[in-house]
Design goal:
Number of helices: 11
Largest sheet: 12 strands, mixed
Order of helices and strands: EHEHEHEHHEHEHEHEEEEEHHH
Shape: globular
CATH class: Alpha Beta
CATH topology: TIM Barrel
CATH superfamily: Aldolase class I
Length: 330
């Protein structure tokens, strides 16, 4: 097992397939983009499948989430999903995406074995979307969401970040829309993972702000910790249920004590935490002439054994990791 000194066991693997993205969200990266990883540094499709296989068959991982950057930009995505679906035991598999391109790939991903998707959408207003993402692709995201739902990649979860002065008034409208469309909405507090290092605690929209806004239109009943388990989102029943809304409050309500995640970057580095400042190189072990699966599993277990108690976000001396979210994977 991937166990740490605090007794937490990592059964959820987040795999970044690329650091590239076709949006330029203001809370993630600058308008001109970033210097992308060189192709030789990226894990190949075969290497990704091998590492996922080691995690699933030797280390107790039960769920795999493919992320980016934007994972739909990875040419071999469908094949990777299909090969991972053939593992025994078969992991549950999901994808976090901005939804652009999902309209033409949702059916193929479902056929390959993908179980569900999380799609990022921060606004219902095309003009605000263009301001937030610096791209005019709002319609493409809506079409991608519908395609995912129609393909059976359910539950389709929508991830939303609220930004002051831009879309912070949209929480009730977004929830009403999600209920109508059959999507499960999750609000995410803005985290200090932007490439510009411009995040400020004082300026963020908190979980408390989000819930207060939602309660102007909806009755919210806490679902409770038993149903939540190790999931990052606190969930509420909307108007008595059965529909739910979630809030991921990484900053103001950290959930590190129940964390069950291990992360793999697109260039083969293990990260024990989204906010980790240290990484462990699996790519070197993978590409070593005599690097066996047992060797790689041993390195991975040792990395996770050293996982810290928490993210450190509540520490005044907190330092933002050098890698931005797009290079870590959500």
């Amino acid at each position: 097992m991937l166990i740490d000194t605090y007794g937490r066991v990592a059964t959820d693997l987040r795999v970044s397939l690329t650091d590239r993205c076709n949006l330029r969200c203001t809370y993630c990266m600058p308008e001109e983009g970033l210097q992308w990883l060189a192709k030789p540094d990226l894990l190949t499709d075969d290497e990704i499948v091998r590492l996922v296989g080691i995690a699933v068959t030797r280390l107790g991982v039960e769920e795999v989430r493919f992320t980016g950057g934007e994972p739909l930009l990875r040419p071999g995505l469908v094949g990777i999903v299909e090969r991972c679906a053939a593992l025994d035991p078969r992991p549950r598999m999901s994808l976090t995406t901005n939804g652009i391109g999902l309209g033409r790939t949702a059916a193929a991903l479902k056929a390959a074995g993908l179980d569900r998707v999380n799609v990022s959408l921060d606004t219902l207003r095309p003009d605000v979307f263009k301001t937030l993402t610096r791209r005019d692709r709002h319609r493409d995201v809506l079409e991608g969401l519908a395609a995912a739902r129609d393909a059976g990649l359910t539950p389709v979860k929508v991830n939303t970040v609220l930004m002051p002065g831009l879309n912070d008034d949209e929480a009730p409208d977004l929830l009403a829309w999600a209920l109508e469309q059959g999507y499960e909405l999750r609000f995410i507090e803005q985290m200090p993972l932007d490439a510009q290092h411009g995040w400020k605690r004082d300026g963020m929209i908190t979980a408390g702000d989000i819930l207060a806004s939602l309660r102007t239109r909806f009755d919210l009943t806490p679902e409770g910790t038993e149903q939540r388990g190790s999931a990052p989102a606190e969930r509420w029943l909307v108007d008595g249920g059965p529909h739910r809304v979630g809030v991921i409050a990484s900053v103001t309500r950290p959930f590190c004590a129940a964390c069950d995640r291990t992360r793999l970057t697109a260039d083969g580095q293990v990260r024990t935490c989204l906010f980790a400042t240290e990484e462990t190189d699996l790519r070197a072990a993978l590409r070593a002439e005599h690097g066996s699966d047992d060797d790689i599993a041993r390195v991975w277990k040792l990395a996770m054994w050293g996982k810290k108690a928490g993210s450190g976000l509540d520490d005044p001396a907190f330092l933002q990791p050098e890698r931005p979210m797009s290079a870590i994977g959500g």
